[in-house]
Amino acid sequence: MTGFGAASSERDGLSVRVEVRSVNHRHLQSKLRLPPECQYLEPEVEAILRKRVSRGSVSLTATIVRLETAATVSFDIDVARSYHKKLAKLARELGVEAGLELESLVALPGVLVTRAQSDPDEREAKIILKAVGEAVAQLVTMREAEGGSLARDLEKNATAVERTVGRIEKRMPRVVKDHYAALKRRVAELIGDARPGPDPDLARELALLADRLDVSEEIARLKSHLEQLSTLLAKGGTVGRQLDFLAQEFFREANTIGSKCNDAQVAHLVVQLKTSIERLREQVQNVE
Q1: I need a surface site. Which of 5, 53, 210, 240 has the fewest CB within 10 A?
Q2: Do 29 and 135 reside in the same domain of the chain?
Protein backbone atom coordinates (compact mmCIF):
# COMPACT_ATOMS: atom_id res chain seq x y z
CA MET A 1 0.00 0.00 0.00
CA THR A 2 1.05 3.58 -0.55
CA GLY A 3 1.60 6.01 2.28
CA PHE A 4 3.65 8.88 3.69
CA GLY A 5 4.80 9.85 7.14
CA ALA A 6 7.01 12.61 8.51
CA ALA A 7 8.27 13.71 11.92
CA SER A 8 10.52 16.50 13.19
CA SER A 9 12.24 17.06 16.50
CA GLU A 10 14.47 19.79 17.95
CA ARG A 11 16.18 19.10 21.24
CA ASP A 12 19.49 19.88 22.87
CA GLY A 13 20.83 21.71 19.83
CA LEU A 14 19.86 18.91 17.43
CA SER A 15 17.27 19.27 14.62
CA VAL A 16 15.99 16.00 13.12
CA ARG A 17 13.62 15.55 10.15
CA VAL A 18 12.51 12.05 9.06
CA GLU A 19 10.34 11.30 6.02
CA VAL A 20 9.14 7.83 5.02
CA ARG A 21 7.26 6.84 1.87
CA SER A 22 5.88 3.52 0.65
CA VAL A 23 4.57 2.20 -2.67
CA ASN A 24 3.12 -1.15 -3.62
CA HIS A 25 5.39 -4.19 -3.65
CA ARG A 26 4.79 -7.91 -3.06
CA HIS A 27 7.52 -8.06 -0.40
CA LEU A 28 9.11 -5.63 2.04
CA GLN A 29 11.88 -3.66 0.37
CA SER A 30 13.45 -0.91 2.47
CA LYS A 31 15.76 1.89 1.33
CA LEU A 32 17.35 3.90 4.14
CA ARG A 33 19.10 7.23 3.60
CA LEU A 34 20.83 8.34 6.79
CA PRO A 35 23.63 10.89 7.25
CA PRO A 36 27.09 9.24 7.20
CA GLU A 37 27.60 9.81 10.94
CA CYS A 38 24.29 8.02 11.68
CA GLN A 39 24.65 4.97 9.47
CA TYR A 40 25.52 2.83 12.47
CA LEU A 41 21.84 3.27 13.47
CA GLU A 42 20.59 1.48 10.32
CA PRO A 43 19.92 -1.88 12.09
CA GLU A 44 17.74 -0.16 14.72
CA VAL A 45 15.90 1.92 12.09
CA GLU A 46 15.32 -1.23 10.02
CA ALA A 47 13.95 -3.02 13.11
CA ILE A 48 11.47 -0.17 13.78
CA LEU A 49 10.33 -0.32 10.17
CA ARG A 50 9.91 -4.11 10.01
CA LYS A 51 7.99 -4.14 13.29
CA ARG A 52 5.22 -2.00 11.77
CA VAL A 53 5.40 -2.77 8.03
CA SER A 54 5.55 -6.17 6.32
CA ARG A 55 4.91 -5.34 2.63
CA GLY A 56 5.77 -2.56 0.21
CA SER A 57 8.76 -0.66 -1.11
CA VAL A 58 9.62 1.77 1.69
CA SER A 59 12.04 4.72 1.45
CA LEU A 60 13.18 6.47 4.64
CA THR A 61 15.22 9.67 4.64
CA ALA A 62 16.66 11.34 7.74
CA THR A 63 18.15 14.86 7.84
CA ILE A 64 20.11 16.04 10.86
CA VAL A 65 21.30 19.57 11.62
CA ARG A 66 23.23 20.55 14.75
CA LEU A 67 22.05 23.97 15.83
CA GLU A 68 24.90 24.30 18.32
CA THR A 69 27.97 22.37 17.35
CA ALA A 70 29.28 20.48 20.31
CA ALA A 71 33.06 20.50 20.42
CA THR A 72 35.90 19.01 22.43
CA VAL A 73 38.95 21.12 23.35
CA SER A 74 42.45 19.75 23.91
CA PHE A 75 46.05 20.91 23.88
CA ASP A 76 48.78 19.60 21.61
CA ILE A 77 51.60 19.21 24.11
CA ASP A 78 54.20 18.35 21.46
CA VAL A 79 53.49 21.54 19.52
CA ALA A 80 53.60 23.64 22.70
CA ARG A 81 56.92 22.05 23.75
CA SER A 82 58.38 22.73 20.30
CA TYR A 83 57.32 26.40 20.50
CA HIS A 84 58.86 26.72 23.97
CA LYS A 85 62.22 25.25 22.96
CA LYS A 86 62.53 27.36 19.83
CA LEU A 87 61.55 30.57 21.62
CA ALA A 88 64.04 29.83 24.42
CA LYS A 89 66.79 29.20 21.85
CA LEU A 90 65.88 32.42 20.04
CA ALA A 91 66.10 34.35 23.34
CA ARG A 92 69.60 32.99 24.03
CA GLU A 93 70.84 33.80 20.57
CA LEU A 94 69.50 37.35 20.75
CA GLY A 95 70.73 37.82 24.29
CA VAL A 96 67.37 38.80 25.63
CA GLU A 97 65.45 37.49 28.58
CA ALA A 98 62.79 34.84 27.73
CA GLY A 99 59.50 36.14 29.11
CA LEU A 100 56.99 33.81 27.45
CA GLU A 101 53.77 33.46 29.44
CA LEU A 102 51.42 30.47 29.33
CA GLU A 103 48.58 32.52 27.87
CA SER A 104 50.79 33.63 25.01
CA LEU A 105 51.95 30.07 24.37
CA VAL A 106 48.40 28.74 24.24
CA ALA A 107 47.47 31.44 21.74
CA LEU A 108 50.06 30.21 19.25
CA PRO A 109 48.68 28.27 16.20
CA GLY A 110 48.23 24.55 16.74
CA VAL A 111 48.56 24.51 20.53
CA LEU A 112 44.83 24.76 21.26
CA VAL A 113 42.99 22.08 19.26
CA THR A 114 39.19 22.17 18.79
CA ARG A 115 37.52 19.10 17.31
CA ALA A 116 33.85 19.23 16.36
CA GLN A 117 31.83 16.28 17.59
CA SER A 118 30.87 14.28 14.48
CA ASP A 119 29.18 11.14 15.80
CA PRO A 120 25.86 11.34 17.66
CA ASP A 121 25.99 10.20 21.26
CA GLU A 122 23.42 7.95 22.95
CA ARG A 123 21.18 10.91 23.82
CA GLU A 124 21.11 12.13 20.21
CA ALA A 125 20.55 8.58 18.92
CA LYS A 126 17.39 8.37 21.05
CA ILE A 127 16.10 11.64 19.54
CA ILE A 128 16.74 10.32 16.01
CA LEU A 129 15.10 6.94 16.65
CA LYS A 130 12.10 8.62 18.31
CA ALA A 131 11.56 10.72 15.17
CA VAL A 132 11.85 7.57 13.03
CA GLY A 133 9.20 5.84 15.14
CA GLU A 134 6.81 8.80 14.85
CA ALA A 135 7.25 9.02 11.06
CA VAL A 136 6.64 5.29 10.64
CA ALA A 137 3.53 5.55 12.85
CA GLN A 138 2.14 8.25 10.53
CA LEU A 139 2.91 6.07 7.53
CA VAL A 140 1.04 3.13 9.08
CA THR A 141 -1.98 5.34 9.88
CA MET A 142 -2.19 6.46 6.25
CA ARG A 143 -1.80 2.89 5.00
CA GLU A 144 -4.56 1.70 7.35
CA ALA A 145 -6.92 4.32 5.90
CA GLU A 146 -6.11 3.07 2.41
CA GLY A 147 -6.57 -0.50 3.65
CA GLY A 148 -10.18 0.27 4.55
CA SER A 149 -10.87 1.37 0.97
CA LEU A 150 -9.12 -1.73 -0.37
CA ALA A 151 -11.21 -3.98 1.88
CA ARG A 152 -14.42 -2.48 0.50
CA ASP A 153 -13.17 -2.95 -3.06
CA LEU A 154 -12.19 -6.55 -2.33
CA GLU A 155 -15.63 -7.26 -0.92
CA LYS A 156 -17.20 -5.79 -4.06
CA ASN A 157 -15.10 -8.03 -6.33
CA ALA A 158 -15.74 -11.05 -4.12
CA THR A 159 -19.47 -10.43 -4.46
CA ALA A 160 -19.08 -10.36 -8.25
CA VAL A 161 -17.17 -13.68 -8.13
CA GLU A 162 -19.85 -15.24 -5.91
CA ARG A 163 -22.63 -14.08 -8.23
CA THR A 164 -20.91 -15.51 -11.32
CA VAL A 165 -20.19 -18.82 -9.57
CA GLY A 166 -23.90 -19.06 -8.72
CA ARG A 167 -24.86 -18.52 -12.35
CA ILE A 168 -22.43 -21.23 -13.48
CA GLU A 169 -23.79 -23.63 -10.87
CA LYS A 170 -27.34 -22.92 -12.02
CA ARG A 171 -26.43 -23.41 -15.68
CA MET A 172 -24.58 -26.74 -15.36
CA PRO A 173 -27.60 -29.13 -15.12
CA ARG A 174 -28.97 -27.56 -18.27
CA VAL A 175 -25.60 -28.05 -19.99
CA VAL A 176 -25.73 -31.80 -19.25
CA LYS A 177 -29.31 -32.07 -20.59
CA ASP A 178 -28.42 -30.15 -23.75
CA HIS A 179 -25.41 -32.39 -24.39
CA TYR A 180 -27.57 -35.47 -23.81
CA ALA A 181 -30.19 -34.20 -26.28
CA ALA A 182 -27.47 -33.48 -28.81
CA LEU A 183 -26.04 -36.97 -28.30
CA LYS A 184 -29.45 -38.54 -28.95
CA ARG A 185 -29.86 -36.50 -32.12
CA ARG A 186 -26.46 -37.58 -33.42
CA VAL A 187 -27.23 -41.23 -32.69
CA ALA A 188 -30.58 -40.92 -34.49
CA GLU A 189 -28.91 -39.32 -37.51
CA LEU A 190 -26.27 -42.05 -37.68
CA ILE A 191 -28.73 -44.94 -37.29
CA GLY A 192 -31.42 -43.52 -39.51
CA ASP A 193 -34.16 -46.13 -40.13
CA ALA A 194 -32.14 -48.88 -38.46
CA ARG A 195 -33.15 -50.19 -35.05
CA PRO A 196 -31.98 -47.76 -32.39
CA GLY A 197 -29.52 -48.91 -29.77
CA PRO A 198 -30.75 -49.92 -26.34
CA ASP A 199 -31.46 -47.17 -23.84
CA PRO A 200 -28.84 -48.53 -21.39
CA ASP A 201 -26.12 -47.56 -23.88
CA LEU A 202 -27.36 -44.01 -23.96
CA ALA A 203 -27.70 -44.03 -20.20
CA ARG A 204 -24.06 -45.11 -19.90
CA GLU A 205 -22.95 -42.37 -22.28
CA LEU A 206 -24.97 -39.86 -20.29
CA ALA A 207 -23.23 -40.96 -17.09
CA LEU A 208 -19.81 -40.54 -18.73
CA LEU A 209 -20.84 -37.18 -20.13
CA ALA A 210 -22.12 -35.99 -16.77
CA ASP A 211 -18.86 -37.07 -15.13
CA ARG A 212 -16.75 -35.18 -17.68
CA LEU A 213 -18.87 -32.04 -17.25
CA ASP A 214 -19.07 -32.26 -13.47
CA VAL A 215 -17.67 -29.09 -11.90
CA SER A 216 -19.37 -29.45 -8.52
CA GLU A 217 -16.02 -29.91 -6.75
CA GLU A 218 -14.58 -26.77 -8.36
CA ILE A 219 -17.69 -24.77 -7.45
CA ALA A 220 -17.56 -26.09 -3.88
CA ARG A 221 -13.89 -25.06 -3.58
CA LEU A 222 -14.65 -21.61 -5.00
CA LYS A 223 -17.37 -21.15 -2.39
CA SER A 224 -14.96 -22.28 0.32
CA HIS A 225 -12.33 -19.80 -0.90
CA LEU A 226 -14.94 -17.02 -0.81
CA GLU A 227 -15.73 -17.88 2.80
CA GLN A 228 -12.01 -17.80 3.67
CA LEU A 229 -11.68 -14.45 1.91
CA SER A 230 -14.55 -13.03 3.93
CA THR A 231 -13.03 -14.38 7.16
CA LEU A 232 -9.61 -12.86 6.42
CA LEU A 233 -11.10 -9.46 5.57
CA ALA A 234 -13.06 -9.48 8.82
CA LYS A 235 -9.99 -10.60 10.76
CA GLY A 236 -7.77 -7.77 9.52
CA GLY A 237 -4.09 -7.56 10.34
CA THR A 238 -1.33 -8.89 8.12
CA VAL A 239 -3.27 -11.07 5.66
CA GLY A 240 -1.82 -9.99 2.30
CA ARG A 241 0.10 -13.20 1.59
CA GLN A 242 -2.89 -15.39 2.47
CA LEU A 243 -5.12 -13.33 0.18
CA ASP A 244 -2.51 -13.64 -2.56
CA PHE A 245 -2.61 -17.44 -2.24
CA LEU A 246 -6.43 -17.45 -2.35
CA ALA A 247 -6.39 -15.37 -5.56
CA GLN A 248 -4.17 -18.01 -7.18
CA GLU A 249 -6.58 -20.74 -6.10
CA PHE A 250 -9.52 -18.79 -7.55
CA PHE A 251 -7.76 -18.74 -10.91
CA ARG A 252 -6.97 -22.45 -10.72
CA GLU A 253 -10.61 -23.43 -10.18
CA ALA A 254 -11.87 -21.02 -12.87
CA ASN A 255 -9.45 -22.48 -15.42
CA THR A 256 -10.59 -26.02 -14.58
CA ILE A 257 -14.25 -25.09 -15.06
CA GLY A 258 -13.42 -23.48 -18.39
CA SER A 259 -11.58 -26.55 -19.63
CA LYS A 260 -14.36 -28.96 -18.60
CA CYS A 261 -17.40 -27.18 -20.03
CA ASN A 262 -17.94 -27.12 -23.77
CA ASP A 263 -20.77 -24.61 -23.54
CA ALA A 264 -20.82 -21.09 -24.97
CA GLN A 265 -22.81 -19.56 -22.12
CA VAL A 266 -20.61 -21.11 -19.46
CA ALA A 267 -17.53 -19.99 -21.44
CA HIS A 268 -18.81 -16.39 -21.28
CA LEU A 269 -19.47 -16.77 -17.56
CA VAL A 270 -15.95 -18.10 -17.02
CA VAL A 271 -14.55 -15.02 -18.78
CA GLN A 272 -16.57 -12.81 -16.44
CA LEU A 273 -15.37 -14.89 -13.49
CA LYS A 274 -11.71 -14.51 -14.48
CA THR A 275 -12.19 -10.76 -14.97
CA SER A 276 -13.54 -10.38 -11.42
CA ILE A 277 -10.76 -12.59 -10.04
CA GLU A 278 -8.12 -10.53 -11.87
CA ARG A 279 -9.48 -7.34 -10.34
CA LEU A 280 -9.43 -9.02 -6.95
CA ARG A 281 -5.86 -10.23 -7.49
CA GLU A 282 -4.65 -6.75 -8.46
CA GLN A 283 -6.03 -5.29 -5.24
CA VAL A 284 -4.64 -8.15 -3.16
CA GLN A 285 -1.13 -7.16 -4.31
CA ASN A 286 -1.61 -3.89 -2.40
CA VAL A 287 -2.72 -5.48 0.87
CA GLU A 288 -0.22 -5.88 3.66
Answers
A1: 210
A2: yes
